[in-house]
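Researcher: Let's try something more involved. This one mixes different molecule types, so please make sure each is placed in the same coordinate frame as the others.
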Amino acid sequence: MQRTVSSSPLAPSVKVKLINAGFHTAADLVDLLPLQLCQEAGISQEEANEVLQALRHDSRLCQERAAEGCITALELLHCEQSQGSLVTFSSELDAVLGGGVSVGKTTEICGTPGIGKTQLCIQLAVDVQIPVCFGGLGGKAVYIDTEGGFLVQRAAEMARAAAEHCALLAEDTEQRAALEDFTLEKILSNIFLIRCHDYVELLAETYLLPNLLQKCAEVKLVVIDSIAFPFRHDFEDFSQRTRLLNSLAQQLNQLANQQQTAVVLTNQMTTKVSNGQSKLVPALGESWGHAATEKLILHWEEDKSVGVAKAAYHVSRTRATPPLSGSGRGKSSKRSPALPPCLVFCRSSSRKADGWPLSTSLPGKWKPLSNTKLRVKDSGMPV
Amino acid sequence: MDWGRLKLNPKITNAVKKASVRSAKEILSLSGPDLQRLTHLSKGDVHLLHSAVAAEYRKARPVTALELSLGEWPSLEPGHRLSFACPVLDDFLRGGLPLNGITELAGESAAGKTQFGLQLCLSVQYPQDHGGLGTGAVYICTEDSFPIKRLRQLITQQSRLRPHVPPALIHSLRFSDNIYIEHTADLEALQTCVSQRVPLLLERGLVRLVVVDSVAALFRSEFQADEAIERARHLLAFSRNLHCLSHTYGAPVLCINQVSDLVDSPNPGRCDYGLVGSKVLPALGLAWANQVLVRLMLRRQERCLRVGGQTSTVRSLEVVFAPHLPRTSCLCGVWEEGVKGVPREGLREKPPCPI
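Model: All components are placed in one shared frame. Result:
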């Protein structure tokens, strides 16, 4: 497989000159001296040196890749399965998501204000640190906050509850040893917070994320809460917004894939009026709807605040309600009221064929409720 | 754009200058292929350019949550909140009003929202040990005129409201001097106030609390029912200003909001924030709700409470949503000295009383 000049990472004007001079593939340039290339293509000496270096480096890479061979779908499946997922501590939500939030993919969480998107994100930032012997990923988290909703008081409550929960579950010496690294201080020290005040800062952070993740390889989760907020504030040029969002989506997908991290984005909802009927849809437009690999939409249900889920593609599926219950854990005798449940709406990537598990059952660990609800506890552990 | 600080190959900086791309914002807003086309640089060079400009544009490095909890970054996490001057209310709100972000207080008329606003204007003037911020407040009135008589009454009763604060301190504070009142009769005046006059006060350190009473009045009156998009645009511009001010100066913003009735049956296109069985919803819809960090709702109840010779209708203050609070509610009453929360145990049933 030969590298063509037009697809190589050279400056566009240089490419044009080379193609005009008749050089189309790397093979055409392989035995040329820089001075000869200068004369034939009409480029400067420096540019000629660069061209030859780039194409030689490239051809070496191509050969290496050809030697390795392509990866088969079976290998890809094994790779994905061995990766593990990020549990949310709600067995229902995990079941609907296929084991948890997928690592290596982007997940979008949409919902109206106050439904629990930020709570879920902070919970994930704590859950990603659960040691591997407990079934977690044992990684760190980067939290990009654009709204100011990350309050460290809440993160500390969740971290404390997670540590206590794991302490109760510890059975053997390995798990007990791992617990020493899973304390409140340690959990808080592994969440990196970046606050962005406008979309330019968010774009800047996205360019810096690959470096950050390479330097700190234990980062397994990147949360952007929320991605809608800076882009909805008075953006005059909608086409520019769409372009920026598309390029952001590409960069995040690439980041998730290459660095094998889970990327979680939060989106707002907006009202869409069609045929005199209004309904709530995720914000940022139609093209952004295709950006993330997996999408969760959270709704309130009017009368009993029971969560309902429906798949995006299969409207006829049974409704499922992942419950996230909340009650004061270890708190005072007053029973703190629960947050009304939410609906979960799931669309997954093509790797979930059609066996989309949309059954609803209650979470195993906590006491079963009469109808599945989604509540956020004081301790933050969705149940 | 200070090219000298970027540590890039001069070839890259020259190419960028030649393409008349001047600001960091422009560079970061252009994609890789677009920049390649404009500057005739290679892909690797453009990548270096993006990384260098992004690193320069970034305002602060990532901080860990542990550093925040230890109070090492007061601009991001101040560690304290603005107290309401009542221990029950402060306990309910886990400290008081957050210093960054917009807090909304919605309720029907005569629920007591303005009372909360006035009480906070006084409470912000106390020093930090007593739950305040040591500076003044700006109160923006959009509907009625400012209730100056009630403010004077509250000022004289401060020592009764706060028995634990030394009277000498209370007497030393010149409360009326530190409250700046703005009357804005239309939307344009409101925007001018928030974008020009309030930042001036904040910058000089004269105020740190901004109260808008009420945010719904002007937006509801100046737009027709079918001008929803126009209204949303103005709302977003307004809230953007408030957000900027709040985050730059660490100033809590309290927006008082009206409510609208629910006249039709449950509608899938309307978000009710989980307020099941409620006949009213906070006004201004989803566009405004997305900008608010903490939403509180004040409701009058049928019963009365008598404490020490005074009678007050009981109100319930409910948390609709907040990032750090569970959905609880608390009872409170409005007295001569101000708003005070009622601990649940202290409530005895009384028949409804006339106002």
